[in-house]
Design goal:
The chain is an all-alpha fold. It contains ten helices and no strands.
Length: 275
Amino acid sequence: MTLFDDFLIRSLIAGIGVALIAGPMGCFVVWRRLAYFGETIAHSALLGITVAVVFSFNFMLGVLISSIAVVVVMYYIDRSENLPTETLLGLLAHGGLAIGLVVLSFFPNMRMDLEALLFGDILAVSKTDLVVIWIGGGVVFASLLFLWRQLLTSTVSEDLAKVAGMRPDLTNLCFGLLMAIVIAGAVKIVGILLIVALLIIPAATARKFAISPEIMAALAGLIGVVGVIGGLGSSLYWDTPAGPSMVVTLMILFALSRVLKISYGTTEKSATRNK
């Protein structure tokens, strides 16, 4: 028996792998106010899972295919149609979800664990899932490092990025594709409904203490890891769902960060007045 035969070890390694890359990616989601964009990709994941089950291949691959399709369709529609971004995201989010449910209705005997789809099933992570998560995470991390300057510049101002000779539209497309990969890897960890929480809560928590974008990205990754460890530990101790337990742990960390920041700010103001 090897170390990876222990399902708890596999769950921990998988969760840490997702958290380390979801944190930095989530920083751009927070900076660019793209939470609904993440929800759109996540909702379309049901269609990918349905297709994967129907054709009997790995559902993470199905989620990746459907997520990439949504990103590409949104990119081209956004460039060719005069539609508000929120409207376009709503169409794709609910359209993908509805199509997935309709396709499922044609296969009444198909067995799917709806709770695992919605809230994740990290305890069922396999060795193959570990390989996919860490290789995919490595690809996303390397791509993020390569695109870091372009992403930061276009986040501040797309006009500034164009003046600097960059292609913000292409950069945005690449970021969307990276989001698709991260969400495909995170579906089994926290499920369709909670994916965006794993992206935005660590980043929002780190934002209060970061003095630079790079530090915020690093802190967000570490906070995500703490959330995964704390969530798995509380899940085992209180027998609660693992995915939601991780999100609750992250919410507690966020609340503590607000209290600590307010307390620190109050102490600093008092010290300044005493001088």
